[in-house]
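Re-run requested by the PI after the first attempt was lost when the workstation crashed. Everything re-entered from the original request form. Ligand of interest: potassium ion.
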Amino acid sequence: MALEILTPQEMGRVDRLAIKQGPLSGIALMERAGAAVADIVFERFPDAGRIDVLCGPGNNGGDGYVAATILAASGYHVALWTDGDPRAGSDAEIAARNCILKRQPLEQYQPLPGGIVVDALYGAGLERPLQGTARAVAEKVGAAGLPVVAVDLPSGLSGLSGEALGTTFRAAVTVTFARKKPGHLLYPGRAFCGELVVRDIGISDAVVKEIGSQTFENLPALWIDDFPRPPADTYKYSRGHVGVFSGGPAATGAARLSAMAAARSGAGAVTLLSPPASLAVNAVHLTSIILRRIDGPDDAQAFLDQRKPSALVAGPGLGTDNDMAALLATVVQPASAARRVVVLDADALTIIAQEPAKWFGSFALDGAHATILTPHEGEFGRLFPEIHADKSLSKLEKARAAAKSAHSIIVYKGPDTVIANPEGRAAINSNGTPLLATAGSGDVLSGIIAGLAGQGMSPFEAACAGAWLHAEAAHTFGPGLIAEDLPSMLPRVLTRLLRQRAP
Ligand SMILES: NC(=O)C1=CN([C@@H]2O[C@H](COP(=O)(O)OP(=O)(O)OC[C@H]3O[C@@H](n4cnc5c(N)ncnc54)[C@H](OP(=O)(O)O)[C@@H]3O)[C@@H](O)[C@H]2O)[C@@H](O)CC1
Ligand SMILES: [K+]
């Protein structure tokens, strides 16, 4: 499965390399791209009374000329509207020359009921907000509510960031070529794209590989080979031992959600580390989860030394007072011998945000240990205020910059969660659901990630798999979901996932 995500710039390099290596020329690729667009119109709108194809001056417009020619030859009533002439010497100029339809000036276009619009104004080359006629037409089409088939990207949308640069077409279907672009998966771009279809236009996987993209769609193929597979002779502690820190008696539920999620993810043993005041309430609610009293950093250290947990979760319901900061300092120090992954969320992130430089300096990431931070939007802003405020960076680039500066894996949560490591590898999650916007959902995610990392999955892969499983569990439960339901959905999701895996 093709997992790479290409920035518009990388896609340009892929196009050029494919053309250079052959056998397909630029115009041959464009003919395939235009044909793919026409195909989607046939499939999705077989009864369209009228098709208005809007062509810009670049190669995106070139795809439009090709699609218009094919649609007209197939008997559709097609009208062609152009915003200037195609650039001289471009493949679009060849496509326009081969198009027998009469060109009409875009400023004369008026949306008509019953029609559909093919938006081939701007694609990967869009560099600034739509202006003048293009902008007015985008507004008119939006107001008329006509179905739009966008070529490569809805015009007005940044393929790099998913931001609307200004007025933007809103597509029912977007047809892109070879690979997805970040703007197709990052919000608000994902919403502007409607249904996203990726079509092969004859660019080989080898050419894409040569570009060396470090961004991937977060699908099981990205991490399934590293997914925990316990050997037949395993025992509970060799299946991973996760420690989860509980806070005071008023907020114990969050840590229990994490603990249960770690257990349901396959960790062989999970210990809830509880302050004395919370022992009774935690005990009432726990059965298979081990409960251990932790009265300050020395007890925490003793647990780490004796039990050598392979993963820890700290933050959910932890509290933010000085005692908890001292406890956290013990938790995050690199383990000397044991391999350990520490997942930090919620209150732990609040503590860290008070002195980020100090904490980030102590986060090890050397293959044996790793720190994984799972901030939502607000937490990300407090942890990384400068990166967060930098309007020139996309969410993807922000996650990467944060991972580098914090020496950590970052799970930048949201409807388009981005997972990044300090070396620049990143994945964009594409199965998010609004069902996950519910209290306690993040605590479950931390637990799943720790559960997987605790079983020996590489930390970046564990973070990616955790984000995917979390959303999949929500989809599986459906409406009415509360965080408690997520761990109990995991067995079903895992069964489905592992059934697909090759033996
Ligand atoms: N053979 C190939 O390579 C293949 C390419 N393919 C297709 O090509 C598309 C990329 O083509 P592209 O690079 O020509 O970019 P495109 O989006 O058409 O913009 C063109 C120019 O418009 C300008 N401009 C920018 N913003 C503007 C604005 N707001 N308002 C006004 N003008 C604006 C800017 O030029 P400038 O005015 O700055 O000189 C920019 O360079 C890609 O999306 C895919 O559909 C496929 O067919 C596969 C084969
Ligand atoms: K477009």
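Saved to the shared folder this time. The chain has a mean pLDDT of 95.
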